[in-house]
Design brief:
binds magnesium ion; 13 helices; binds 6-O-phosphoryl inosine monophosphate; binds guanosine-5'-diphosphate; four-stranded mixed beta sheet; alpha/beta
């Protein structure tokens, strides 16, 4: 079997963790290829809830090898904390593999993330404060620290010295903070060496060999299409490639090996942090979506902004990712509305847009053009087949599918593994 890519279609928190966990039993490797502990995936297995940040969701499937690939930025303190938490609950994490090329989030980058946000004031991005942006900036500036550098103290020290030479000036002179000592950073990182050694590998080689042997590899994206640094709502984005293309650069698997691109999409829309959001609801409906959907961040606990389904975004995601399958989630949250609006196009300064506008300014001014659908009141969380859903729920799903640019493969009707209706098989 070739490689499968799974990504978010909107602004994150679509339920990628649940979807990955569901496929986990049928795949051999689950690979995290971008982002870091800015991600938060809640996975519910038989009533037990797990919150994952840095570990791929495949960690919960026995027999599946979880891989943190080169495209990820790794906070080693968080990594071992998360491993210990899962081990304490009886989850075996011993198969975890970590790329020697992955970049490490150093303490100075966590600090810089927080102080730059504070400094930006009303222009802030609303980051998770985990040091993600500054660490990717170091990577692109070619002053980053990689996992393999931990094994050469001389190089590590040189790199940290080089990075701090500039960063300390910024911290002290621009942000009025204390300077960070080179020794402090080096010692913290060296403290992880013994625990990193057994899990470090050339993950690109490992994954390509696995594919050669006919194994199935699932590449799991953190964040989502509209948070992608190239294709998202820049500058209100994260700093990595969260779209399907990022799965290749972030893992070392060539595009010709990718067979399917699965996009996870909510039956409505949410966003955490700042930035434009055309279908956002600032009224009672928004409150109700937040309450019904428990829309509070897994990572920062922030209330998520909520709005109706946006088919322009779905079509955009289908296009920039080359989506072969959509996984629709959280349909159950929409139960009880008499009418459900769906955004089918935008209007900007009197002009209709059926596709994403070219500029951010236009997107900021986009007003949703809504089509109304009839709702349903029956509890759908116990359904096990599509045909068991109320007629209006079936019509809603088929209407979304029609306007979203790729077939729907499954529908989520609750957080548990069992609460998913399969429309067509994702795996052969
Ligand atoms: P991720 O970051 O994309 O993995 O998504 P999150 O885990 O941050 O947020 C999705 C939330 O919705 C989690 O709490 C899931 O348990 C939950 N969830 C996933 N699918 C469904 C569904 O179909 N219905 C309901 N009610 N909850 C779901
Ligand atoms: P998962 O994988 C939702 C958002 C932040 C902020 C912006 C930049 O759970 O879907 P960063 O810390 O990455 O520099 O923040 O991106 N963001 C997310 N929003 N889900 C996520 O991950 C996110 N990861 C980052 O809120 O607006
Ligand atoms: Mg999340």
């Amino acid at each position: 079997m070739p490689a499968l890519v799974l990504i978010g279609a909107q602004w994150g928190d679509e339920g990628k963790g649940k979807a990955t966990d569901q496929l986990g039993g049928a795949v051999d490797y689950v690979v995290k290829f971008n982002g870091g502990n800015n991600a938060g995936h809640t996975v519910v297995v038989g009533g037990e809830t797990y919150a994952l940040h840095l570990l791929p969701s495949g960690i919960l499937s026995p027999g599946c090898t979880p891989v943190i690939a080169n495209g990820v930025v790794v906070d080693l303190g968080v990594l071992f904390h998360e491993i210990e938490g899962l081990e304490a609950r009886g989850v075996d994490t011993s198969r975890l593999v970590l790329s020697s090329d992955a970049h490490v989030i150093a303490s100075y980058n966590r600090q810089l993330d927080k102080v730059t946000e504070r400094f930006l004031g009303s222009r802030k991005i609303g980051t998770t404060g985990r040091g993600i942006g500054p660490t990717y900036a170091d990577k692109m500036n070619r002053v980053g620290v990689r996992v393999q550098d931990l094994f050469d103290e001389k190089i590590l020290r040189q790199k940290v010295e080089g990075a701090l030479e500039v960063k300390n000036q910024v911290l002290v002179k621009v942000y009025n903070r204390r300077a960070i000592a080179v020794d402090e950073v080096v010692e913290e990182l060296l403290g992880y060496v013994d625990r990193v050694r057994p899990m470090m590998a050339d993950t690109a080689l490992l994954l390509n060999q696995a594919l050669d042997q006919g194994k199935t590899v699932l590449l799991e994206g953190g964040q989502a299409t509209l948070l992608d640094v190239d294709h998202g709502t820049y500058p209100f984005v994260t700093s990595s490639s969260a779209t399907a293309g990022g799965a290749c650069t972030g893992s070392g698997i060539g595009p010709t090996r990718v067979d399917k691109v699965i996009a996870v999409i909510k039956a409505y829309t949410t966003r955490v942090g700042e930035g434009p959001f055309p279908t956002e609801l600032l009224d009672e409906d928004g409150e109700r979506l937040r309450a019904h959907g428990h829309e509070y961040g897994t990572t920062t606990g922030r209330p998520r902004r909520c709005g109706w389904y946006d088919a322009v975004i779905a079509r955009y995601a289908a296009r920039v990712n080359g989506v072969t399958d959509f996984v629709l989630t959280k349909l159950d949250v929409l139960t009880g509305w008499e009418k459900i609006p769906v955004c089918v196009a935008y209007e900007v300064d009197g002009v209709r847009y059926d596709e994403m506008p070219m500029t951010q300014t236009a997107f900021h001014h986009a007003k949703p053009v809504y089509e109304m659908f009839d709702g349903w009141t029956e509890d759908i969380t116990g359904a096990r087949r599509f045909e068991e859903l109320p007629k209006n729920a079936q019509l809603y799903i088929r209407a979304l599918e029609e306007m979203s640019g790729a077939p729907f493969s499954s529908v989520g009707i609750g957080p548990d593994r069992e609460q998913t209706l399969e429309l067509r098989p994702l795996l052969p």
